[in-house]
Amino acid sequence: LQIRSDKDKEIHIRYSITGVGADQPPMEVFNIDPVSGRMYVTRPMDREERASYHLRAHAVDMNGNKVENPIDLYIYVIDMNDNRPEFINQVYNGSVDEGSKPGTYVMTVTANDADDGTTANGMVRYRIVTQTPQSPSQNMFTINSETGDIVTVAAGLDRMGIQQYIVIVQATDMEGNLNYGLSNTATAIITVTDVNDNPPEFTTSTVSCFAEQPQKGVRASVAITRDFTGAGSRDWGGMGLPNTTCPHSLFSFSQPKGPREKIQHFAAALAAVDYEMNRAFMLTVMVSNQAPLASGIQMSFQSTAGVTISVTDVNEAPYFPTNHKLIRLEEGVPTGTVLTTFSAVDPDRFMQQAVRYSKLSDPANWLNINATNGQITTAAVLDRESDYIKNNVYEATFLAADNGIPPASGTGTLQIYLIDINDNAPELLPKEAQICEKPHLNVINITAADADIDPNVGPFVFELPSVPSAVRKNWTITRLNGDYAQLSLRIMYLEAGVYDVPIIVTDSGNPPLYNTSVIKVKVCPCDENGDCTTIGAVAAAGLGTGAIIAILICIIILLTMVLLFVVWMKRREKERHTKQLLIDPEDDVRDNILKYDEEGGGEEDQDYDLSQLQQPETMDHVLNKTPGVRRVDERPIGAEPQYPIRPVIPHPGDIGDFINEGLRAADNDPTAPPYDSLLVFDYEGSGSTAGSVSSLNSSSSGDQDYDYLNDWGPRFKKLADMYGGGEED
């Protein structure tokens, strides 16, 4: 395409285009040479994406001034067959009744082609490629080539033979031209539906079965000992399901849930059959289709059969004819009173069985039941005010059991409605109160509580007793109504304290009951509002001013005594630590260690070898000594003697023998310390580092004076007595 202005010979012109496909999305689909005005397509175009474009061409001079008015350009994209037909669904499901006539509509399949539908590129045509199965004809169906409607083309559809057909459908464009057109396929599933063209029928005319009688009033299934071969139909689905009926009020038959090939036995349901009433039943069972037969079927639509049901007797549980049983009586009946007879009935009339009774639930343990006849008696006094009573009714449950095989039992509930009697005296309320010591400031409202019910409760009568006389002298009662009264002071002033005020309360029962209750009244001084003051509350507790002061003085005296005792104890402890001994240390003969601080003779007195007095580190010098030479302060080396073993449980007479044996063993044991009373520090002879002491001589003269021992204290008194006066003695 080329655009050109008539003025291009006079001036230089520049061409441009605007619009969708040029300077608007999609951008630069078209391009124009600004000098020659030739237009070009820059990329492949798809008609299915955009079928046409509207552009405007412009012509301006070199200065950008408009030379020509813009012109409109309409560009149409020519369609090409580049799209296959597409089915809406890949699988289509349809149905057709069996026995349908040729031309019966089945279903419609639809395919769409994106190409131009006004041209052959978008014109779709349909055809059937294959049919499976190809029975009874290979062409049971046909399809409208333009609309896609599938219809029957041949007779002979029978669900009993073929239930489903699978048809492959092809859609081709170019008006169905297989050489030039593009194609696609889809699957059509055609189901042959059943019609009611076969009536149901029983395979046998008579059936016998047995059934155990169920519990009374309980619905159960019949226990059929022989299969009840049901009435089947050749038809399938809902049309072929039979409807079984039985003209008897006690029996009903379950309905089958499938075709004849799946369900052949119908079970009967039994309701409350009693062997004692009927031992056998003769039934006529009728079966028919749920839907009427198809038009044109000349056959009976129902079938009948006879059923004999024999009832087998089983042990049934005893039952109470009246359950729950309600009786009414006054509370407080004495123990052993006969209330009623609560007996059960055994439905097994043809079985010789005994029924025994027992308690199953008796919360308060108030009742007894006779085990043989069911007679109910009281085991305790029945009290309507007990916690076991709900809405004036006491409930107990009893058990009745037979001796059948297996045994059976039933329960019954007895309800006792207790009528109230006036057996509870009223109680005064409140139990405590407070009032001002002067009248007319406040009063005490009193009432009463009664555990009984109307008419054995209010109105109540409140009165003060005549004894002691101080009660009526100090107090008075004013009646407000049938349930309330006021207690107030009669005198002008009553000393603060706690007073026990007795009040007689009488109810309205027949005969009436009364009770003398005591209310604790705290009398206290009050402020102008009639409220007890703090001091008044203390005084009302029963303590006067003098008593309070006395208590405080006692507390102070007690604290003072405790403080003095603590001070005395601390002072005594201090004196004990600072006190000196009363006797001289030299005269103290107790076993104390005394330090004398004696000085020696200097370094000359310490010039000796101390190594001779040290314990050797090894035993070599002992082992290497000649026989017969031994230090007796060392533990000898050798076998140790065996000491006697004390028995675990010694006899008292063996204790002395045991001690004597241990003593002899210790005396003969050289290894037992002390090894010897004589301690040898070294030995004389060859090799001894100590000098000989044989040159030392002791003085035997008798002129030694030992009187100075008397000055050495009590420790040397014994020596002074022995040596000090020897010549005189």
CATH H-level name of one domain... which superfamily?
Answer: Cadherins
Structural class: mainly beta
What profile does the largest beta sheet have? Answer: 4 strands, mixed
Q: How much β-strand is present in the residues?
A: 25-35%
Any idea what the shape is? extended
Question: If you average the pLDDT, what whole number results?
Answer: 77
Unreliable segments of 5+ consecutive residues: 215-232, 236-240, 259-267, 613-619, 625-633
Helical amount among residues, as a percent range?
A: 10-25%
| Strand numbers in spatial order across the main sheet | 7-14-13-10
CATH level-1 class of one domain = Mainly Beta
Main location: membrane
Membrane topology: Single-pass type I membrane protein
Subcellular location: Cell membrane
GO molecular function, one term: cadherin binding
How would you explain this protein's 3D organization?
The chain is mainly beta. Among the domains are: 64 residues, Cadherins (Immunoglobulin-like), CATH 2.60.40; 108 residues, Immunoglobulin-like (Sandwich); 104 residues, Immunoglobulin-like, CATH 2.60.40.60; 95 residues, Immunoglobulin-like; 98 residues, Cadherins (Immunoglobulin-like). The protein contains seven helices and 36 strands. Strands 7-14-13-10 form a four-stranded mixed sheet, with no helix packed on it. Strands 15-21-20-17 form a four-stranded mixed sheet, with no helix packed on it. A hairpin with a 5-residue loop joins strand 33 and strand 34.
